[in-house]
């Protein structure tokens, strides 16, 4: 297999790397695969002990050089915030799905996604907090693209139907309105045919600190 990597240094600037994955992106995806494998593994105890020791050694190798700063926040040409360390969308965060969203011609945020077994809450269903995290993100992106980027003040959810994992789903969000530093959005996670599973409305508040030009220092 030949892997075309982004150039060294591109990881600091996702736009410069284009669509090519960086070595960090590939490591991150490998760790996601590892986490999936851990949840589902049935290998015997002694094998688990050996694997754990190997992982401890790999963890030490990664810790040999630690970042002293967070991953930078950037905006793609459509105005969607991109942050490699983000818990939902981050290409360099193994914990992230990762969720990849785009802006449609009418300004809707749209992301195709598929939850995995690691997201399980109730048997065979996705944990409600995981659904909330995805909706918080896409609603936040909707207000950011509309010019009202902010912190979540309130997020109200209605869990309509159980959310399955391992199946294609769609998350969408639309900006509603702005009053001063407050912006509202609504969205949903749905089946591909539009059947809603979780519906959300959210209020996002642009912190006074950001309007004073100190974003990112909090
Ligand atoms: C230099 C410019 C830089 C611009 C920055 C650019 C980009 C930022 C990038 C990315 C962001 C975009 C998208 C990200 C995508 C997804 C979003 C995920 C978001 C999160 O995952 S985020 C984590 C959870 N979130 C929190 O961790 C919030 C903790 N909290 C605070 O940080 C403060 O609390 C804050 C900032 C909310 C307000 O602080 P503040 O000092 O700026 O404003 P203040 O208190 O004066 O309130 C003003 C008016 O909002 C009302 N109000 C206040 N709080 C309210 C609430 N909770 N509910 C309802 N109304 C509320 C007041 O009642 C008043 O209302 P009124 O004016 O009518 O009296």
Automatic annotation (TrEMBL):
UniProt keyword annotations, A-Z: Apoptosis, Cell membrane, Cell projection, Cytoplasm, Fatty acid metabolism, Hydrolase, Lipid metabolism, Membrane, Transit peptide
Q: Which family does it belong to?
A: Belongs to the THEM4/THEM5 thioesterase family.
Q: Which Pfam families does this chain map to?
A: 4HBT (PF03061)
**Catalytic activity reported:** (5Z,8Z,11Z,14Z)-eicosatetraenoyl-CoA + H2O = (5Z,8Z,11Z,14Z)-eicosatetraenoate + CoA + H(+); dodecanoyl-CoA + H2O = dodecanoate + CoA + H(+); tetradecanoyl-CoA + H2O = tetradecanoate + CoA + H(+); (9Z)-octadecenoyl-CoA + H2O = (9Z)-octadecenoate + CoA + H(+)
What membrane topology is given? Answer: Peripheral membrane protein
Kindly indicate whether the keyword Cytoplasm belongs to this entry: yes
User: Which residue intervals define the domain Thioesterase in the entry?
Assistant: 126-182
Task: Give the CDD domains listed for this entry.
Answer: PaaI_thioesterase
Q: Which superkingdom, per the lineage? A: Bacteria
Q: What's the protein called, per UniProt? A: Acyl-coenzyme A thioesterase THEM4
Q: Does the keyword Transit peptide apply?
A: yes
What compartments host this protein?
Cell projection, Ruffle membrane; Cytoplasm; Membrane
- Record organism: Streptosporangium lutulentum
Assigned EC number? 3.1.2.2
């Amino acid at each position: 297999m030949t892997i075309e990597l982004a150039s060294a240094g591109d990881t600091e600037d996702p736009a410069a790397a284009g669509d090519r994955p960086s070595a960090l992106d590939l490591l991150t995806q490998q760790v996601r695969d590892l986490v999936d494998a851990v949840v589902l593994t049935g290998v015997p105890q002694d094998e688990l002990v050996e694997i754990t020791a190997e992982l401890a050694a790999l963890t030490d190798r990664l810790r040999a050089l630690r970042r002293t700063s967070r991953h930078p926040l950037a905006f793609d040409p459509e105005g969607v915030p991109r942050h490699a360390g983000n818990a939902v969308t981050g290409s360099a965060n193994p914990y992230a799905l990762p969720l990849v969203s785009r802006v449609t011609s009418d300004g809707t945020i749209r992301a195709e996604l598929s939850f995995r077994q690691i997201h399980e809450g109730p048997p065979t269903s996705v944990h409600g907090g995981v659904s909330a995290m995805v909706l918080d993100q896409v609603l936040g992106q909707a207000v950011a693209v509309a010019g009202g980027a902010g912190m979540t003040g309130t997020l109200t959810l209605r869990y309509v139907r159980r959310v399955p994992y391992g199946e294609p789903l769609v998350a969408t969000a639309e900006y509603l309105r702005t009053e001063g530093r407050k912006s509202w959005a609504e969205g949903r996670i749905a089946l591909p045919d539009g059947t809603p599973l979780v519906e959300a409305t959210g209020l996002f508040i642009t912190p006074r600190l950001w309007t004073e030009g100190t974003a990112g220092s909090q």
